[in-house]
Amino acid sequence: MASHLSLPVLQEELLSVPSRTLHFFADIWASRTRDAVLGIRVQYVKDWQLRCHTFTFRHMRGHHTGENIRESFAAEFESKGVNEEQVGTVVCDSAANMSKAINTASNFTDQRPHASVDVEDCDEETTDENLLFAEDDEESGLIPAFKRVCCAAHTLQLAVNLALRHDESAQKLLEAINKTVNVFRRSCFWTEQQREQCGKNMVPPSGTRWNSLVEALKWLTEV
């Protein structure tokens, strides 16, 4: 159950949550202006009601290494008074940097370096296929402070993308969709004409946007 709370009220409420009962959902993505954004949602139960709130939504500076992501988590947890013992699970994608950030976070209260590099690209970029079969990074040998849970929707999306890449008919269909979409995307005039005459906004398929291929197919059949 999602509801709206002011930040001070949310912080006060989180302080009363028992050990290992705060669960987080985290993701990093790039805006259209190529700014890296870190989003974290928190979920817990209070008075037998499931509560879900936005924990943070902020610009993330520096390389997207596991260490830098961990430090960003640490800063947010510390600023809102969340201690390590309260954290149960963290749901995220299967990327190696996210896995390393969670699995090496044995103590979020360690002193953190303050150096930051203003680069928005991902240093530990992996292919969809590698993400699908990725395993936890045990390189550090540290005992995880809490459990990482792979996002089921993201894993399913990776499986769908992998299957589409190995299907010749699907590839031809995707090429046709992309060519059609690009006709409109290259021209503001034709985009406006399409919107006025069909009453629909075009939906370009994207391998990183959930269900975008289905939405693109719906758009084509409806226009």
Please state the structural category: alpha/beta
- Average pLDDT for all residues: 79
Based on CA atoms alone, the radius of gyration comes out at: 21 Å
Question: How large is the count of helical segments?
Answer: 8
Cα(first) to Cα(last) distance is 36 Å
Name the shape in a single word.
elongated
Quote the beta fraction: 15-25%
Q: In sequence order, what are the helices and strands, one letter per element? A: HEEEHEHHEHHHH
Uncertain spans: 108-127, 135-144
The count of strands amounts to 5
Classify the helix fraction into a percent range. Answer: 40-55%
> What topology, given as strand order, has the largest sheet?
3-2-1-4-5
Specify the biggest β-sheet.
Answer: 5 strands, mixed
Describe how the helices and strands are arranged.
Layout lengths: L6 H9 L6 E9 L5 E11 L2 E11 L6 H14 L7 E6 L3 H8 L24 H5 L14 E4 L1 H14 L2 H18 L2 H11 L13 H11 L1
Structure, described:
The chain has helices at 7-15, 66-79, 96-103, 128-132, 152-165, 168-185, 188-198, 212-222; strands at 22-30, 36-46, 49-59, 87-92, 147-150. It is of the alpha/beta class and 223 residues long. Strands 3-2-1-4-5 form a 5-stranded mixed sheet. Strand 1 (22-30) and strand 2 form a beta hairpin. Helix 2 (66-79) crosses helix 3 (96-103). The longest helix is centred in the C-terminal third of the chain and has 18 residues, at 168-185. The two termini are 36 Å apart. One of its GO terms (cellular component) is nucleus. GO terms for molecular function: zinc ion binding. Its main location: nucleus.
